[in-house]
Amino acid sequence: MDILFLSISMGAGHLKAAYALKEYVEKKYPHSKNIIVDTFKYINPLAHKVIVDGYLKMIKLKPRLYGKLYSLSEYKEILNKLSNIMNIMLSPKIERLVKEFNPSVIVCTHPFPLKMVSYLKKENKISTPAVAILTDYVNHPLWFHKNIEAFIVGHDYIKEDMIRCGIPRKTIFSYGVPVSQIFLEKKEKSLARKELSLEDKFTVLIMGGSLGYGNLESAFRGFGKCSREMQLIAVCGKNKQLKKRLEKISLSFKNKKVRILGYADNISTLMDAADILVTKPGGMTISEALVKELPMFINSPIPGQEERNAKFLVTSGAAVTISKNDDIENILCQTVDNQTRFRHMKEMAKTLSTPYSAKNIVNLIEGLL
After folding, report:
1. Alpha helices in 37-133 (DSSP H)
2. Read out DSSP for 270-288?
3. Which has more confidence, 71 or 221?
4. How many CB atoms lie within 10 A of CB 368?
5. In the prediction, which pLDDT does 322 show?
6. Confidence category of residue 124, pLDDT binned at 50, 70, 90
7. Burial of 51 from C-beta contacts in 10 A (0-12 / 13-18 / 19+)
8. DSSP 124
9. With contact defined as beta carbons under 8 Å apart, do 180 and 284 qualify?
């Protein structure tokens, strides 16, 4: 089984989903050949820089504008005109790649390369089976393409919504977003805290995504001002300035043990050590936290897919939302101190989790072949 993974580095989640599935494939098929392609970067580095850098700057500086564009993309008439032009221009290099690599299957973890694959199959330029993995807990027309053998979604409600939109039921599978196998290895909280040289007490993990975006600073202040004793871990990603600001802010905290990290490659252990996760609701972070059965406090979602991710989690009971001016002490009283509600949040996280997503997707691919 040789797989060509097509993704785009708009945030870390799309590529991480590809790497998680690749990890499982190579464990089951040690001699398989699999490659992950950052599609725009492969086709045209300049186009990659313009599109991806523009996206990252927009969500950081003009998130509401991004939200409006996201909503606009739901109107298929406009969407199809723009995407068809893009595919005619960019797909020939993907066609050559497919023919040279000759994969058993193509897996797309972003809708842009999926559209290219659909276009190439429509034009009978390639015939390789294709699988789409939706990395957010939302349904969106960007993923609606013909000639795709399977769509992997995070929950049955997304499946039913896609069916109502005309996607054949037999092609949609509620297997969830694949996560790295390390997240399936759960450690006792006390052991995880010991491994991290932390105290064995109530622990809050605050994360801002791979780039440290989101209003992490206000969440950090809010939890730091709480009178109750707790332990705070803040992960700032690649945002060095944010890390410096948090270090300065933490000097005024009382009854708090604070650990401030930059980029962290031990998120699985950090989640094992935590009692709650404070995060912006990126699809991959959500999926990892659900596997860890970790209640979430959702902070500053990006307008568009992340707002819908947040709505899904809150409606399901696995999370609550917090904003800049909220009384964190009061919210903790309503959630963590309410044993029934806090237990329910953990149970719902477990119910929504899909720890065997990678295994189920590979079994599906085997059936397609």
Report:
1. 39-43, 45-61, 63-72, 76-101, 111-122
2. HHHH-SEEEE---HHHHHH
3. 221
4. 12
5. 93
6. very high
7. middle
8. T
9. no
